[in-house]
Amino acid sequence: MMYVIGDTHGDIERYKRIVAPRVRAGDIVLHVGDFGFWDEEIHGKFLDEVEEAGYTLAFVDGNHENYPKMEALPDQQLWGGVVGVLRPHIVRLKRGEVYAVEGRTVFAMGGAMSQDRYMRREGESWFPQEIPGDEDCRHAEESLNKVERKVDCVLTHAAPIETFEYMVRRGVMDGRPQQEEFAFLNYLQYVCDTVEYGKWFFGHYHVDMELWRGQTAVLDEVISLD
User: Fold this and answer.
1) Which of 213, 174, 217 shows the shortest CA–CA distance to 195?
2) Distance CA 191, CA 186 (A)
3) 58-94 pLDDT per residue, tens
4) What is the chain's alpha carbon radius of gyration, rounded to the nearest angstrom?
5) Please, which pLDDT band fits residue 137 given cuts at 50, 70 and 90?
6) Is 206 exposed, middle or buried (0-12, 13-18, 19+ CB in 10 A)?
7) How many helices (H) and strands (E) does the chain have?
8) The pLDDT value given to residue 43
9) 81 pairs with which residues across the strands?
10) Residue 80: CB partners within 8 Å, gap ≥ 6?
11) Domain edges within the chain
């Protein structure tokens, strides 16, 4: 079985309550960012338990991650792309990669802007690299063009700009994107407009909702792809 889950923010008890009862050895859990399990002293035993459970947990990066630790993960080839390895079966799906996962093509493009960065400390609790840049988008274009811009599933943390605005119109959220994130959200819109995809899952906005254009916001639900 293959599942999609949303923001966990390093909350062990929430993960055990929502996710752990659903998954079994051999399953694949795709995580749409704000993974958050970066403190080995706090999370190490939990990560070992996930590893020993025999399923694979693969996450895109969110904005609330420890980027120095994440970027220091060793690289490995998996599913036809490059992943960062936290445990043998707990891996980061890198920005702009297309993976072949159990017969499905999956495009991964993590990253988003922390709306609460003004309450955080740069280099400690938020990091400038949380928002993908031009190099990430160029790599994504190369990967998508190699598969003729056709994938089964898109995994992001943020949403395309038109989807963001649609959520605002529906009263799901307030406000508008910050200036610093416009370029990236517009790039995701370009992906939406030019890539033939089946389903698109994202987190970040802390809501569970099927929206439009095959896109679903994920938080507490565990969504089966089978």
Assistant:
1) 213
2) 9
3) 999 999 999 999 999 999 999 999 999 999 999 999 9
4) 16
5) very high
6) middle
7) 6, 13
8) 98
9) 78
10) 98, 99, 100
11) 2-224
35 DSSP 8-state letter:
-
What's the pTM value of the predicted model, to 2 decimals? 0.96
Tokens representing 110 are: 């993590």
The CATH number of 2-224 is 3.60.21
Beta bridge partners of 85: 91
Mean of per-residue pLDDT scores for the chain: 96
Structure tokens at 138: 């160029």
Q: Where are the alpha helices (DSSP H) in the chain?
A: 12-18, 40-53, 67-71, 134-146, 161-169, 182-194
Q: Looking at residue 119, what DSSP letter applies?
A: G
Asked whether the predicted pLDDT for residue 175 surpasses 90, the reply is: no
CA atoms within 13 A on the CB side of 162: 10
Pure H helices in 147-181: 161-169
Per-residue burial over 47-67, b = 16 or more CB atoms within 10 Å of its CB, e = otherwise? beebbeeebbbbbbbbbbbbb
